[in-house]
Amino acid sequence: MSPRAKLILEFIEAYIRRFKKGPTYDVIRKSMGLKSKSNVHRIVRNLERDGYLVVRKKKFNGIGLSDNDIARM
Length: 73
Description:
Distance between the termini: 17 Å
Radius of gyration: 11 Å
Number of domains: 1
Low-confidence stretches: 69-73
Number of helices: 4
Oligomer: single chain
């Protein structure tokens, strides 16, 4: 996992703990100081592929933690 992906995963975990819902790509982009949502999308998809996240398509705030990641917390 890249350092940036690790930071984004940690941000998503903290956001979900605090707000009880997943962040949007735009919230992640602004918080991480990235210029493009496509970079966030790519990293989130890679984290989903690796089993850290679950992304519910066509759902606002559809990013959630996978069962494996919840057990790690």
